[in-house]
Structure formats: C-alpha cells, structure tokens
C-alpha cells in the first residue's frame, strides 16, 4: 500500500511539476479540497476515485487517506502549492505515525509554492533572507503569531503572508500592518498577488503605509520587502546584500563602523560633539556601555577642538595615551603632546614628596604647561593630583579627561573631578576607561568637524 502527498502548484497547469504529474497518473484514489480537482482531473487515469472535501476538513482528509490505504492501492492526497508548506503533508504523516497495524509506503512530492510563484511574477523580491507567516489562528494561537510577526519585522526579513484575510478572519492583516509599521519604514514595498498563475491573476504593488486591507482576500498572498527592497518598473528587487560592495579600505571600514554605531545610539541629552566622542569611545572598545558612562560639561569637546586647532598642548599620564593620539592630527594643527612619567626629575620628586610616579609626572607637567589639556587614561593618582592642584588654583588647564581604569580609587578620582565645576572635563564614569579610551576622546576633539 502506498500513500503520496502531492503538491500541485499554485493553480496554473504549467506549474504542476512533471514528477507530480507522474505520481497522479498512477493514483487509484485521490483525496483533496474539492476546488483543486479542476486543476488535475486531466492527469488522472480512468477509473480513479476522486474524493472531494471542504476547505476546513484537513484533518478528515488525512484520516480518510490513511484509512483507505490497502495492499495494491495507491492513495494520493493533493495540496495546492507545495504539499509540505501550510499543507497536507504534516497532517498525513502525523496521523500515519499513530498507527501500528499498517505498513504504508509514504512519500511527499514537492510542488511550486504560492510564494515562489509570486516571487517569479514580481521579479526578484527574495534576493535575501525571507520567511513565510500564516495569519490563520485556527491551529496556531494568535500570541504566537504576533511573536513571529515582530521577529520578522525586527529581523528585516522579506515576509510572505499566507492566509492573510478571509470573511471570518478580517482583523489579523490590519494587526500585522500595525506591528510591522513599528519597525519598518512606511515606504517599504508591498505586493498583493491574487490568484497567482491562474487566469484571474492580479498583482498590486503598494507600500506598507498604503496597504489596503480590503484589497486582500483568501485567494491572495501578500509579500512585504525588507529595508533594501525597491520597485523597478512592475517588479520588486531585493539586493543580495545590504551594501553594493563590502568596505575594503581602512577608511571605508571605519566609516561603516561609525555608521553602525550611530544607528544604535539612544541618548538624546548630548551635543553632536559629545555624540561623536561617544562613538569614538565605542569604536575603540566595541562596548556600547560607554554611551551611558560618558559624562561631560561646558561643551568640553568643542572647546578643546578650538584649543587644539590653534596649536594647543596635551599632557598625558602614560605613554600609551600619548601613543594613541593620532600623529596626523598633531601635525595638521601643530599641536604637541607630552608625557613626563619617565622624565629624569620624576623619580627624585616622587621619593622626596612621597608621590607615585604618575603624580610626580603631573606635578612637573603643571609647572611647565599650566594651560594644557590634561589627559588621564591609566592612573587615578594622576587624576587626584590634578584635582588637588586645581582646587588650590595652581593652574588653569584647557580641560581634563578623566578616564583612569581599574579598581582602587578609580571611581573616587572621577567623582572628585566631577565636583570640579570650574574646568571643562570629560569623565568615563565607573571603573572602565583606559589609555585607548582617553586617546579616543582627544582624537574626537581633533575631528568633530571632519566626521
């Protein structure tokens, strides 16, 4: 005994695959939705028994097909499109798997699904990742369907809708549109393909915002493009990639990195200059937490840009910060950067005053460059020294970058700087920071007009 589940395509006689025609020609019994027999009757052998059922009797069709299987008989269950996509194959196999008294030879014969046929009519809408969602909640709870709709929208999938609307299920498509508009542009291309491949075929191309729910019925498939899909003449085209060409040069890679970072930023309480500095911090760390850790005052980045382009002076606590400041920027504006950590006068001063080398280096720097931009990316003791000297009015810096990293006294040093209201600062709050982050903030100040 043999049982085949056969996909007969979307309706057009030329869309029934040859393998499906061959299987149908050997059938003794064919079971299916009554409406479908008009598409395959010419392929059946004389004497073949045809059993038509109503549209909603899928389970009854499956049970009947398995029960009619007898030795020497070939039973065929037909489905429109592909038998395995929202069709009869799963029901037939499920029912057959519950029986132990019959050894049935099962097979599924694929067919051209409606969304594949529709894609052919539309040209090239499935050039990238896509999904299909059925809006029928007869067998799937609506909350589950909503989760899938949101996932498809967020994931930017080209989305084909089966069972989009009927007389009894008239509200689901409107809800789908509402959900998709939360994540997709209003101008996203949408196609309504009705009676695809059949003589009554109609295709309407519109947009997500303009999609008219009333234009859709149970004979329609709706296809929604992704963020890259566009209309070309009467076609929809979805490029195979999200960029015409992947970034190759260093500048292209950097530009694309900044584009991706900018797309994910959320803070609205920062200036454009601060936003640029935040992006530079994230770019060098790949850590989006820096958006929340970043704190500045007095439009510091803009002030420092004006200071540096006039040949300003930068002092760093460690040589790694000094090395991270782009030499091209220093050369362009004739700016200078100094680090006194390894100066010959540091060790004697540190021993004499009971200071760390970082503190001693900053004390020497204050004497030599009292109006410099001071940048701390490593040692909290250096930041403490700057705050103490500032509190005693011993220098008037262009500003202070407070981004030491670590555990001991790191948070405290930053809080102390935050209390200094008379100096422009940028602080990376908490324990995070580091030489690369401190240098990135300076590089941001150099380049705010270049982005």
UniProtKB/TrEMBL annotation:
Signal peptide: none
Superkingdom of origin: Bacteria
Annotated GO MF terms: methyltransferase activity; precorrin-8X methylmutase activity
Domain Cobalamin biosynthesis precorrin-8X methylmutase CobH/CbiC: 252-446
One BP term from GO: cobalamin biosynthetic process
Tetrapyrrole methylase domain mapped to chain residues: 2-211
Protein's name according to its UniProt entry: Precorrin-8X methylmutase
Gene3D superfamilies, per the entry: Cobalamin biosynthesis CobH/CbiC, precorrin-8X methylmutase, Cobalt-precorrin-4 Transmethylase, Domain 1, Methyltransferase, Cobalt-precorrin-4 Transmethylase, Domain 2
Pathway membership, UniProt: Cofactor biosynthesis; adenosylcobalamin biosynthesis
Keywords: Cobalamin biosynthesis, Isomerase, Methyltransferase, S-adenosyl-L-methionine, Transferase
Organism: Chitinophaga ginsengisoli
Taxonomic lineage: Bacteria, Pseudomonadati, Bacteroidota, Chitinophagia, Chitinophagales
Pfam families xrefs: CbiC, TP_methylase
């Amino acid at each position: 005994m043999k049982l085949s589940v056969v996909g007969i395509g979307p309706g057009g006689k030329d869309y029934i695959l040859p393998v499906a025609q061959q299987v149908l020609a050997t059938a003794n019994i064919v079971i299916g939705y009554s409406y479908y027999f008009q598409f395959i009757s010419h392929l059946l052998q004389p004497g073949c028994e045809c059993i038509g059922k109503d549209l909603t009797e899928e389970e009854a069709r499956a049970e009947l097909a398995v029960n009619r299987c007898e030795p020497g008989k070939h039973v065929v269950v037909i489905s429109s499109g592909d038998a395995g996509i929202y069709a009869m194959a799963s029901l037939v196999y499920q029912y057959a798997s519950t029986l132990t008294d019959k050894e049935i030879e099962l097979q599924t014969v694929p067919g051209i699904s409606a969304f594949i046929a529709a894609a052919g009519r539309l040209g090239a809408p499935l050039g990238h990742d896509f999904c299909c969602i059925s809006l029928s909640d007869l067998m799937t709870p609506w909350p589950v369907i909503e989760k899938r709709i949101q996932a498809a929208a967020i994931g930017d999938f080209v989305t084909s809708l089966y069972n989009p609307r009927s007389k009894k299920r008239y509200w689901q498509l409107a809800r789908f549109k509402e959900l998709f508009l939360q994540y997709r542009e209003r101008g996203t291309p949408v196609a309504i393909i009705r009676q695809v491949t059949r003589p009554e075929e109609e295709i309407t191309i519109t947009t997500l915002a303009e999609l008219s729910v009333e234009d859709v019925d149970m004979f329609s498939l709706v296809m929604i493009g992704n963020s890259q899909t566009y209309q070309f003449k009467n076609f929809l085209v979805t490029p195979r990639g999200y960029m015409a060409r992947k970034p190759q040069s260093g500048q292209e890679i950097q530009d694309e990195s900044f584009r991706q970072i900018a797309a994910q930023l959320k803070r609205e309480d920062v200036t454009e200059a601060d936003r640029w500095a935040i992006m530079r911090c994230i770019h060098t760390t790949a850590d989006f937490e820096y958006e929340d850790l970043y704190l500045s005052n007095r439009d510091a980045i803009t002030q420092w840009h004006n200071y540096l382009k006039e040949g300003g002076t930068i002092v760093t606590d460690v040589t790694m910060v000094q090395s991270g400041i782009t030499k091209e920027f220093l050369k362009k504006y004739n700016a200078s950067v100094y680090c006194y950590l390894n100066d010959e006068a540091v060790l004697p001063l540190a021993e004499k005053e009971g200071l760390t080398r970082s503190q001693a280096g900053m004390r020497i720097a204050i004497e030599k460059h009292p109006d410099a931009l001071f940048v701390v990316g490593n040692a909290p003791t250096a930041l403490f020294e700057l705050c103490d000297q500032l509190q005693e009015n011993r220098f008037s810096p262009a500003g202070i970058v407070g981004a030491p990293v670590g555990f001991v006294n790191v948070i405290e040093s930053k809080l102390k700087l935050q209390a200094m209201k008379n100096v422009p600062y940028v602080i990376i709050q908490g324990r995070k920071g580091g030489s690369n982050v401190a240098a990135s903030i300076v590089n941001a100040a150099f380049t705010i007009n270049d982005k």
